[in-house]
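#onboarding

Welcome to the new folks! Below is a worked example of what a typical request in this channel looks like: someone posts a single protein sequence, and someone else replies with the predicted structure as tokens. Don't worry about understanding the tokens yet, we'll cover that in week two.

Example request:
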Amino acid sequence: MFYRLFPDGSRQSVPLHNQFAGPQTTSCWIIGGGPSLNALPWSQIERSPAPRFSINLSGASLLRPTFWTSYDPTHRFHRSIYLDPGILKFVHSCRAMDLIPQTTFKVCEAPNLLCFDRTRGRGFHDFPSPGGQDIQRPVQIRERDCLPGITDWQDSFVQAIDIAYRLGFRRLYLAGCDMFIAPSAELVTFASTFGVSYQTHEPLGAFLRRCIQAGAARAELERHALGDQYHFDEEKPFAAAVQTDEHYFRVVQYLRLSRRALSLSGLEIISVTPDSRLNDHFPIRSVEDAVQDILYDVGDPAAESTRGMYTCPSRPRERPLAPMRDVPPHHWNSARAPQQHPPIPEEAIPLEEG
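Example response:
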């Protein structure tokens, strides 16, 4: 699934499938580039004991990601992302031989960077899992398109969700994932002079078409600014932003139509973005509540005391536990079972020097 590529074309497989899964559901923040991230308590997200998965330029100037992925060309992203060894990066293999911006290094030479292959033709019935073997696939989908690569719906957000699932995360909190671009207040006011009102989360293209049908000239509409597009300092031209909003709308519908498959795969998608197109279709939580859930599962590093950790003979338990014993399942093939070792009494375990 994931592998390292090298400038001479050789590759090395890196097995990460379910590496971040555990005995309970593991959580991950998906960080989008929407303007709402500026208003969210992003410092709480950064301090919480859960990794942050950034997409493209998301998180720039606010928080540093744990994981990162992109779909667009390499030159659109910062050198410090590629060369930061503390960030685990995932890029499609077609970007491997690009140059890292402002360097003569190939992308594949970047530290802690892995490549993957994409799969086209995956439907809503088996996203993000490559399962669905009981469903008759359309005959026009070729066998090679059913390989278990990362889903290619031409979107980095979908790509990040699929990668996070392959890594073993089963609860994704979406922060800064507005998934829409709104018209500015000035544009809404201008449209009202033609008797047209903007409907919440309406695709920009549909809104503009209604304005034009009511008599507004497109050139006049484009003289007005759109709302904020990102939480960082960047914006697209008017026409490109309208196309981007249409893309956001389409991706939201992709995920809406994938809800049954998401449920069957055990993947929870939870929005912590207050005003997102996704909020009509997925559960909504506040960042504060999401952080509390993570702290409940993992523990609160800020509240943990170190006093007595090296000197107390044993740790007091919060509550007494019933007896436990590791037992094999019935009819378990002992030849396949891992070698069992008797438990070592705690007093027999040697301590570190001092």
